[in-house]
Amino acid sequence: MMEPLTKEQVINLRKKHYGKSCKLFYKSDPIKIVRAQGQYMYDEKNNRYLDCINNVAHVGHCHPDVVKAGVEQMKVLNTNSRFLHDNLAMYADKLCSLFPSKLSVCYFTNSGSEANDLAIRLARQHTKHHDVVTVDHAYHGHLTTLIDISPYKFNAHGGEGKKDWVHVAPSPDVYRGMYRDDKNAGEKYALEVKKIIDEAHKNGRKVSKHVFIIHGS
Q: Of 51, 110, 142, 216, most Cβ neighbours within 10 A?
């Protein structure tokens, strides 16, 4: 087993081979994470950090049941979804059973970016409208379609700015948002979206009355 690299070696290799747009957390003193368990992550010195940022470990890092299931499946088969397989069909059936009957079709994707891009294409195909209402500060993924609707990106240094078919609603943040500590915050944030749609209609933009919520990181 090869010796682990030092933090400085990793930083130097990253500078050499990573695109500059691939940012690090804690730029002045980046953290080198070597393992994780449950809700904690650990660096090369075994310092423990409470993980409040990752959205990929929904049941905690290295959950034994998830690890066991993954290993058992990879012993048998790991391929794409264009072949018939019991598990895929049963998973889709079980997933759809949790939703209203009209939500009965699944599209399995490889990432949040791919899922959000597909959601936009489905919404535009269904409504025949192009405009999108997005939430302030939201980030939806790295695809061009998603950068165009992510204030996090199009307002950033070097970004191209907001397109005229993108409409930005205030973030429904009950802690720091414009309606924080308001017991009617949900209704008021929804009315902000309605105002944006109504204003767009006045200006001749075609924004659907259907509201598609795409969660942003």
A: 216
**pLDDT, tens digit, 9 for 90 and up, residues 98-127:** 999 999 999 999 888 999 999 999 989 998
Give residue for tokens 């936009």. Answer: 120
Look up residue 106 and give its DSSP letter.
-
Does residue 86 sit within a domain?
A: no
Read off the pTM. 0.78
Query: What's the full length of the chain, in residues?
Result: 217
Helices (H), the chain: 7-17, 64-76, 86-96, 112-127, 144-147, 151-154, 185-202
Domain residues for the domain of 3 are 1-78
Closest CA to 215 of 143, 134, 144, 151: 134
Q: At residue 182, what are phi and psi to the nearest 5 degrees?
A: -105, 125
Type of residue numbered 182: D
CB 153 within 8 A of CB 159: yes
CATH number at residue 39: 3.90.1150.10
Structural domain contains residue 122: yes
- Tens digits of residue pLDDT in 128-155: 888 999 999 888 888 988 989 999 888 7
- The count of domains in the chain is 2
Whether 19 maps to a domain, the answer reads yes
Cα(152)–Cα(150) distance, integer angstroms:
5
Residue that is last in its domain, among 56, 78, 100: 78
Each residue's pLDDT tens digit, 157-178: 566 788 989 999 999 988 888 9
Pair 40, 120 in one domain: no
Q: Does residue 12 belong to any structural domain of this protein?
A: yes
